Amino acid sequence: MAEFSNPEAYELWMGRWSDRLAPAFVRFAGPPESGRVLDVGSGTGALAAALLADVADATVVGIEPAEAYVAYSSARLRDERLRFEIGDALAIPFEDDGFDAALSLLILQELPDAPKAVREMRRVTRPGGLVAASQWDFADGMPMLALFWDAVVEVVDSDAARRAAADCLVVDHPDEGALRRLWHDAGLVEIVTERHEIAMDFTAFDDYWAPFLSGVTPTSSFAGGWAKTRGRPSKTACARRRSAPVRTDRSRSPRGPGRFAARCRWADASYGHRYAVMGRVSD
Question: I want to staple 215 with a disulfide (CB 3.0 to 4.6 A). Which of 2, 86, 161, 261 is the partner?
């Protein structure tokens, strides 16, 4: 399976969003200027790069379970303050209290046990240290995906398609309140949350569509298979929606009623909203 094994393709799929999101997340979190910072689920290195640019005297360690991504990030970012290692967010391979901060960018929704991952981040962070994460607002702020899944349901119109859409767009901790509770339940204090918007310029429809065929994530694997079996109708359904408003507030139904709160115009920009949460380990 090609999922999470092709970092170059992932850069076109989600990495270019991460590169824009990471600096804003680092500004929100405010990691220490010195000490050790852990990047949990480092991917292609977007957060690590933003950390290096923001914290002059800190060292950064990124952990990532995919060996190909570790190799890619290590080659992409060469700095004596930084290293990448293979590691699992659910079993972080470091001793207790070893870092001044632990941050993660866009991985909580991918994990089978997000509470355990947050507890692990807390465990390896010293008393008084920072634990922070950022994830997409899937219910009300990711028109890139909403546009695609609306088109899937339109073309396929089956329970299986609706379940696949729900699996992508419904997450366990979908809003600021849920993230705040997640941090509180992990024993963190001084919890702060934020919602932030970023924009992505698509030069043409194919600039939006091509990454969906990459097979580098579960969604793009589904899209690639769908395009092969459905052919041109799959692309046409998305293209037809390119200037239409995107249904964004679905509750738990991908075809349910919702408000049209985001634009997706390729010559203009596509917008994404993310939530961020941070807290501190009690002294």
Answer: 2
